[in-house]
Each structure stands twice: as C-alpha cells, then as structure tokens.
Design goal:
This is Response regulator. This protein has 508 residues and is of the alpha/beta class. It contains 21 helices and ten strands. The strands form two sheets. Strands 2-1-3-4-5 form a five-stranded parallel β-sheet, with helices on both faces. Helix 1 links the parallel strand 1 and strand 2.
C-alpha cells in the first residue's frame, strides 16, 4: 500500500484533497499534517512514499520542510501544491527534487492526472526494487554454490564438469595472494550453524562444503594484521557460534601459502592440527604440533596415487602401502602422535573418496587411544577392513543392469532437462560416479549420449511431414529451432530440412 501525506495549513483544503484521492485512489493510505514542522515529524514515523506539500504555511514553510525531509529520507517524492506560480518557487522546488506541482485551485481531473503519474512511478520503482532483491538473492545463492565448488576443487581431488578457473572468474578474489586454510571440526549439530559460519567468513574467505565433521575454510591474508592475529581472531569468532551442546568444536589452522596451487598443503596441515582436540585452547596452529620440521614435510605427500587405487578397488595395495609407511616411521623412531595424525589424515581422505563413489562409511576414528605402534596397526587395519567391506558390499549390491537402467531412463526422458543429479537420485549413485561410468562404458559423457538420443528421436519425427521443424525442436527437448538445427547438422552432417528431403527421396 502506498502512503501519502497531505500537508496544508487549511483544513478545508486538506479534507477536499483527501476526498478526491480516496474516490480516485481507494488503495492509498492517507494522513494529514497542518504545517511544515508537523510534516517533518510525521515523515519520520509515518514514512510516506509521496507528500503533497503546500508552500505558504506558518511555523515552517513547505520548502524548508521539504529540504529537511529530503535530507533524512531522500526516497520520498514530493508534489508541490501552491497558489503561487512564480519562477523563484519553481526553481527552489526543482532543486529539492519535486516531481510535479498542483496549482490552487485545480480541477479534480487535473489533480488526479498529476498524482497518478507520480504514483505510477512509485509502483515501477517498487517493482524494480523487488526484482533487484530477487536478483541479488539468486546471485547470493549462486555465489555460495560456486564458492563451495571452488573450495572443493582446490582442496580435494574431485572431478568437475566446470573448471575451477571458470568458477573463480565468478567470485570476487581478494587482492592478497597469500592464504591459509582453517578446518572447523564439528562433532555434532554443525550443519545447523553453516549459514552463521559462512556469514562470519564472508568478508575474509571462502567456505567449503561440510564433509562429515569437517568444514574447510580458505582464508585470505589481511596485510594490515599478522597471520596469527588474523587466524586467532577468526577462530574465536567462529567458536563463539557454538551452542551449549556444541562445545566440542575445534579448529585446526594450516600455514600461509602464496598461490591457489599450494593451498591444498595448508588444508592437510589444518587437518593434522585437528586430530588431537584435547587441550586448553579450542584451536591449534599446525606449527604447534610437537614434531621435527622434516617430519612435518613428510606429512605433505601427494595422495593422488593412493586415492586412485581406492577408486579402482585395489585394497591390497592400499593396505600394503600404509603398513609399509608404519614400518618406515617406526624404524625412524617417529613419535607415535605424529604417525597417528598422519594415519587419520589418510583414512579421512579414503573415506571421502569412497563417498564420491557412492560408498558411505562411518567417520574413521580410533576406538581407543593407541599406546604403541602395534595397537596403531591393529586400529588402522580394523578401520581399513570396515571401509573395504562397505566398498565391496556396495558394488556387490549394484545390479549388472544399472548402467542400462540409466541409459533407458535417458532415452525415455530425453525430451526433458536431465541433469547428473537427476540420474544420481534415480539409481542412488553419486553424480561423479555416473559421469565416470559413462566415459568408461560408453566412451562419451552423459550430455553426448543425451544429445544422441534426442537426434535419433528427431530423425523419426522428421519422417512425419505434417510436423514443422519448430514443433520437432520442442518435442525432442530444445527451446531454440536454430540451435537444434546446428546440433542436428553437427551430428548427422545434414540440416533438418536436408535430412527430411533425403527421407522424401527414399519414399519416392
């Protein structure tokens, strides 16, 4: 509802104006003020959209009142109502942004015409404001998804259809090239606080997706403060969000690196810093782990080969590699706490890789605190065995015709917009695994296969000479006939019209 304030020292004028307005604009919310001073006070509380302002009034004239109101609430629009059609008044009113004026006396039709123009402008501005809010909301949602995906690609060995460089072009990257990673360990209920956490981080970094109990955050360095001061301040702000039942939150903080290519190292360091959550403080820097510098560097080994073995189901090789690492670390008299941290890091990465393949496992945590290397081996073998069993059970339960089921679904619904997420929900597999399955079994990605299905259907429909190319475009799942024609020609080497002619020749 649009609010309108009538300001005039003559009650008869105010009442007459309100009568005209109520008759012609029944949806208006109208109030009155009898002088400029009252108008200034009412504008603060009533917040009108439009003010009909008389000029000559006692206490404070209309021009003075407009200047004060305009300074405090510049969005309010004014129509000047005056019996003085002089240049000096008009010039002063124009400077104050008056939209129009009404001379006393005026016909009701002239008043309605003048006011209706300004009301229409107010409505249009409101519509634009609402659309801008919707666009801003849509962009914020898109930005959050892009930000999460960028963090995922930078920190983990993930496969994505959109390259990280393209996604980063959509984000505002701080000028600082230095960054570090914080990992927020959330034993329970953390997902409820995700929005609040992201809001805290918004001005200084990017928030990733919540994986099990771990939430990774890439933080960009602020040159005005030291690394430890910045990290400590942000850690305390994040920990302040924890509710009474979330006091087990803990934050690991990695070292500073100078490029996106190196930020994964900071993530691995932050993960190591979260292993032992016991202590006076609820956050720990990687440098505070009591290890020799050379041992810390050994923790940064590339995990790609190991993760690929997991994806291929080569569990014997995975087991052998981890046990050989134990032998080497024990021989070098590496402190047990370091080896435990290193082992849990590897087990977490294995669990995350399995999740990508559609295999859900429990968060790998030791049931008891290992007191020596023998107990550490036993606990590690127990966790590895459980993850292997989950992997085997999952793939044994997969029916041999799963891939055929996916292909059949695409063929039957090729006229619809089918995403990897749609297919994933249909067969209860991860989108990444389905994408990989297509490339391995079909030799193409799922988009290429979907296009092939649409083109086969289009060939059939082109045999119906009563159907137009435009109708066929929509029936096979496209929205633009020109784009459909380009795709069809690329796949068949004929335009739809040329292909239809070949069909006519065959029937001649």
């Amino acid at each position: 509802m649009i609010k309108l304030l009538i300001v005039d020292d003559e009650q008869l004028e105010r009442e007459g104006m309100q009568t005209i307005l109520q008759k012609n604009f029944p949806g208006l919310d109208i109030q009155q003020a009898k002088n400029g001073m009252m108008a200034v006070e009412m504008a603060k509380e009533y917040a009108p959209d439009l003010i009909l302002m008389d000029i000559k009034m006692p206490v404070m004239n209309g021009l003075e009142a407009m200047e004060i109101i305009n300074g405090e609430q510049p969005h309010i629009k004014f129509i000047m109502v005056t019996a003085y059609d002089t240049f000096s008044y008009m010039k002063a009113a124009i400077k104050l942004g008056v939209k129009d004026y009404i001379l006393k006396p005026s016909k009701a039709s002239e008043i309605v015409h003048t006011i209706s123009k300004v009301l229409e402008q107010i409505e249009q501005e409101r519509e634009r404001h609402v659309e801008n809010l919707h666009q801003k909301e849509r962009w914020q949602k898109t930005q959050m998804l892009v930000e999460t995906d960028v963090v995922t690609q930078l920190l983990f060995d993930h496969v994505h259809d959109v390259h990280v460089d393209m996604l980063m072009d959509m984000l505002e990257i701080p000028s600082s090239e230095e960054m570090f990673v914080m990992v927020l360990h959330l034993p329970g209920g953390g997902e409820k606080q995700y929005s609040a956490i992201r809001k805290k981080v918004l001005q200084s970094g990017w928030t990733g997706a919540l994986y099990g109990r771990q939430l990774p955050i890439i933080v960009f360095r602020q040159p005005a403060t030291t690394y430890r001061s910045q990290a400590t301040a942000l850690a305390r702000e994040l920990l302040s969000l924890a509710k009474d039942n979330e006091k087990e939150w803990f934050i690991g903080i990695g070292k500073v690196y100078h490029s996106m290519d190196q930020v994964r190292h900071s993530y691995q360091e932050a993960m190591l810093a979260t292993v032992d959550t016991q202590g006076r403080k609820k956050y720990r820097f990687f440098e505070e782990i009591p290890l020799e510098p050379g041992k810390r560097e050994q923790a940064m080994m590339d995990q790609k080969d190991l993760m690929e073995k997991i994806r291929l189901g080569k569990w014997d090789q995975v087991h052998a590699r981890i046990m050989n690492s134990f032998t080497l670390l024990e021989k070098e008299r590496t402190p047990l706490v370091y080896t435990q941290q290193r082992t849990l890091e590897v087990l977490w990465m294995i669990s995350r890789t399995l999740s990508e393949c559609g295999v859900e496992t429990a968060t790998p945590l030791f049931a008891l605190q290992p007191m020596d290397y023998r107990q550490l081996r036993e606990e590690t073998e127990r966790l590895l065995s459980g993850m292997k069993d989950s992997y085997t059970e999952r793939f044994n339960r997969m029916e041999s015709d799963t891939f055929q089921q996916i292909k059949q679904f695409i063929q039957d619904h090729s006229h619809q917009d089918i995403s990897l997420d749609t297919l994933a929900q249909k067969v209860n597999l991860s989108p990444i695994y389905i994408s990989k399955m297509f490339k391995e079994k079909q030799g193409v990605n799922y988009i290429d296969f979907l296009t092939e299905c649409r083109m086969e259907k289009a060939k059939t429909l082109l045999g119906d000479m009563e159907k137009s190319i435009k109708e066929i475009t929509f029936e096979v799942g496209y929205h633009d006939p020109n784009y459909f024609s380009k795709v069809f020609k690329k796949m068949t080497h004929y335009s739809p019209k040329e292909y239809r002619k070949t069909l006519l020749g065959q029937h001649a």
